Amino acid sequence: HGSSMSVAELGNALKNVHEQTGRKIDIVNLAGSATNTMEVAYELKDHAKYLVGSQGIQAGGNMPFAMTLNEIQNANRDRAQTPDEVVGYLMLMNSMAGGTLSALDLDKAGAVKESWNQLSQALLDAKVSGEKLHDLIKNTQDFQGRSTNEAYQNSRDAIHFAKLVKD
Questions:
Q1: For 36-72, how does the pLDDT look when each residue is reduced to its tens digit (9 = 90+)?
Q2: What span, in angstroms and rounded, lies between the C-alpha atoms of 11 and 7?
Q3: What angle do CA 52, 152, 5 make, to 5 degrees?
Q4: Distance (Å, whole) CA 148 – CA 151
Q5: pTM of the full predicted structure?
Q6: CB burial of residue 104 (10 Å; 0-12, 13-18, 19+)
Q7: Of 45, 64, 88, 92, most Cβ neighbours within 10 A?
Protein backbone atom coordinates (compact mmCIF):
# COMPACT_ATOMS: atom_id res chain seq x y z
CA HIS A 1 0.00 0.00 0.00
CA GLY A 2 2.92 2.31 -0.58
CA SER A 3 4.00 2.27 3.06
CA SER A 4 6.96 0.78 4.84
CA MET A 5 8.24 0.03 8.31
CA SER A 6 11.65 0.81 9.69
CA VAL A 7 13.59 -1.99 11.36
CA ALA A 8 12.82 -0.42 14.75
CA GLU A 9 9.08 -0.26 13.92
CA LEU A 10 9.13 -3.94 12.90
CA GLY A 11 10.88 -4.78 16.17
CA ASN A 12 8.24 -2.85 18.13
CA ALA A 13 5.42 -4.60 16.24
CA LEU A 14 6.86 -8.03 17.09
CA LYS A 15 7.42 -6.92 20.68
CA ASN A 16 3.73 -5.97 20.94
CA VAL A 17 2.68 -9.37 19.58
CA HIS A 18 5.03 -11.10 22.01
CA GLU A 19 3.70 -9.09 24.96
CA GLN A 20 0.05 -9.64 24.01
CA THR A 21 0.36 -13.38 23.35
CA GLY A 22 3.13 -14.31 25.76
CA ARG A 23 4.84 -16.19 22.89
CA LYS A 24 7.61 -15.48 20.45
CA ILE A 25 6.70 -15.64 16.79
CA ASP A 26 8.16 -18.84 15.34
CA ILE A 27 9.23 -17.51 11.94
CA VAL A 28 9.46 -14.04 10.43
CA ASN A 29 9.80 -14.30 6.67
CA LEU A 30 10.72 -11.01 5.03
CA ALA A 31 10.26 -10.72 1.29
CA GLY A 32 12.59 -8.17 -0.16
CA SER A 33 16.20 -7.24 -0.61
CA ALA A 34 18.82 -7.18 2.14
CA THR A 35 16.44 -8.28 4.90
CA ASN A 36 18.82 -10.74 6.59
CA THR A 37 21.36 -8.50 8.24
CA MET A 38 22.87 -8.52 11.70
CA GLU A 39 20.99 -5.33 12.46
CA VAL A 40 17.58 -6.79 11.59
CA ALA A 41 18.34 -10.07 13.40
CA TYR A 42 19.37 -8.26 16.57
CA GLU A 43 16.27 -6.07 16.52
CA LEU A 44 13.97 -9.10 16.28
CA LYS A 45 15.91 -11.57 18.48
CA ASP A 46 13.77 -11.27 21.60
CA HIS A 47 10.46 -11.67 19.79
CA ALA A 48 10.95 -14.34 17.11
CA LYS A 49 12.77 -17.67 16.77
CA TYR A 50 13.84 -17.55 13.09
CA LEU A 51 14.34 -14.85 10.49
CA VAL A 52 14.09 -15.96 6.87
CA GLY A 53 15.07 -13.51 4.17
CA SER A 54 17.69 -12.49 1.66
CA GLN A 55 21.05 -10.94 2.39
CA GLY A 56 21.26 -9.81 -1.23
CA ILE A 57 19.10 -8.08 -3.77
CA GLN A 58 15.99 -10.05 -4.73
CA ALA A 59 15.56 -9.25 -8.39
CA GLY A 60 11.94 -10.15 -8.99
CA GLY A 61 12.26 -13.83 -8.00
CA ASN A 62 10.56 -13.64 -4.63
CA MET A 63 9.22 -16.67 -2.86
CA PRO A 64 5.90 -18.03 -4.15
CA PHE A 65 3.98 -17.39 -0.91
CA ALA A 66 0.65 -18.95 -1.89
CA MET A 67 2.31 -22.18 -3.02
CA THR A 68 4.59 -22.23 0.02
CA LEU A 69 1.77 -21.71 2.52
CA ASN A 70 -0.33 -24.35 0.74
CA GLU A 71 2.53 -26.87 1.02
CA ILE A 72 3.01 -26.11 4.71
CA GLN A 73 -0.74 -26.47 5.33
CA ASN A 74 -0.81 -29.81 3.47
CA ALA A 75 2.16 -31.11 5.44
CA ASN A 76 0.50 -30.06 8.71
CA ARG A 77 -2.65 -32.06 7.95
CA ASP A 78 -0.75 -35.24 8.79
CA ARG A 79 1.16 -33.85 11.74
CA ALA A 80 2.11 -30.55 13.26
CA GLN A 81 5.50 -29.33 12.09
CA THR A 82 8.18 -27.74 14.21
CA PRO A 83 9.43 -24.28 13.26
CA ASP A 84 12.66 -25.98 12.08
CA GLU A 85 10.68 -28.09 9.60
CA VAL A 86 8.72 -25.08 8.35
CA VAL A 87 11.96 -23.17 7.78
CA GLY A 88 13.13 -26.14 5.70
CA TYR A 89 9.99 -25.88 3.56
CA LEU A 90 10.51 -22.15 3.11
CA MET A 91 14.07 -22.71 1.95
CA LEU A 92 13.04 -25.49 -0.44
CA MET A 93 10.15 -23.54 -1.96
CA ASN A 94 12.30 -20.44 -2.42
CA SER A 95 15.07 -22.42 -4.11
CA MET A 96 12.48 -23.64 -6.60
CA ALA A 97 11.69 -19.99 -7.38
CA GLY A 98 15.37 -19.19 -7.91
CA GLY A 99 15.69 -16.92 -4.89
CA THR A 100 18.55 -16.49 -2.45
CA LEU A 101 17.41 -16.91 1.12
CA SER A 102 19.05 -17.70 4.40
CA ALA A 103 17.52 -18.62 7.72
CA LEU A 104 18.89 -17.11 10.92
CA ASP A 105 18.43 -18.62 14.38
CA LEU A 106 17.65 -15.46 16.32
CA ASP A 107 18.59 -17.08 19.64
CA LYS A 108 22.19 -16.65 18.47
CA ALA A 109 21.93 -12.95 17.56
CA GLY A 110 23.16 -11.78 20.97
CA ALA A 111 26.31 -13.90 20.70
CA VAL A 112 26.92 -12.61 17.18
CA LYS A 113 26.67 -9.02 18.40
CA GLU A 114 29.06 -9.75 21.27
CA SER A 115 31.58 -11.35 18.88
CA TRP A 116 31.30 -8.35 16.56
CA ASN A 117 31.90 -6.00 19.49
CA GLN A 118 34.99 -8.00 20.50
CA LEU A 119 36.37 -7.85 16.96
CA SER A 120 35.73 -4.10 16.81
CA GLN A 121 37.47 -3.56 20.14
CA ALA A 122 40.46 -5.67 19.03
CA LEU A 123 40.77 -3.56 15.87
CA LEU A 124 40.67 -0.38 17.95
CA ASP A 125 43.22 -1.76 20.43
CA ALA A 126 45.51 -2.76 17.55
CA LYS A 127 45.21 0.78 16.17
CA VAL A 128 44.34 -0.50 12.69
CA SER A 129 44.21 2.53 10.43
CA GLY A 130 41.02 3.75 8.82
CA GLU A 131 42.68 3.32 5.45
CA LYS A 132 43.43 -0.35 6.16
CA LEU A 133 39.86 -0.95 7.37
CA HIS A 134 38.50 0.73 4.25
CA ASP A 135 40.63 -1.58 2.09
CA LEU A 136 39.40 -4.64 4.01
CA ILE A 137 35.78 -3.57 3.63
CA LYS A 138 36.27 -2.84 -0.06
CA ASN A 139 37.64 -6.37 -0.55
CA THR A 140 34.91 -8.04 1.50
CA GLN A 141 32.34 -10.10 -0.37
CA ASP A 142 28.97 -8.54 -0.95
CA PHE A 143 25.74 -9.96 -2.29
CA GLN A 144 24.68 -6.94 -4.28
CA GLY A 145 27.11 -7.10 -7.19
CA ARG A 146 28.32 -3.54 -6.51
CA SER A 147 24.81 -2.16 -6.54
CA THR A 148 24.11 1.33 -7.77
CA ASN A 149 21.50 1.61 -5.00
CA GLU A 150 23.20 3.63 -2.26
CA ALA A 151 21.35 1.72 0.47
CA TYR A 152 23.16 -1.49 -0.51
CA GLN A 153 26.61 -0.19 -1.39
CA ASN A 154 28.13 -0.77 2.04
CA SER A 155 26.54 -4.12 2.87
CA ARG A 156 29.21 -6.78 3.26
CA ASP A 157 29.53 -10.34 4.49
CA ALA A 158 30.65 -10.20 8.15
CA ILE A 159 32.25 -13.65 8.13
CA HIS A 160 34.31 -12.86 5.05
CA PHE A 161 35.36 -9.55 6.62
CA ALA A 162 36.49 -11.37 9.79
CA LYS A 163 38.53 -13.82 7.68
CA LEU A 164 40.23 -10.94 5.88
CA VAL A 165 41.03 -9.31 9.22
CA LYS A 166 42.46 -12.59 10.49
CA ASP A 167 44.62 -13.00 7.40
A1: 888 899 999 999 999 988 776 665 555 666 776 777 7
A2: 6
A3: 55
A4: 9
A5: 0.75
A6: buried
A7: 45
